[in-house]
Amino acid sequence: MTIKIIAVMFLGLASGLAVGSGFVAFLTVLGIIPRLTQLSKTMKMIRQYEWAVIIGALSGVLASLRDPEFGLSPFFLIPLGLTGGIFVGMLAAGLTEAVNVFPILAKRIRLDGEIVILIMAIVLGKIAGSIFQWVYFVHH
Question: pTM above 0.70?
Answer without folding.
Answer: no
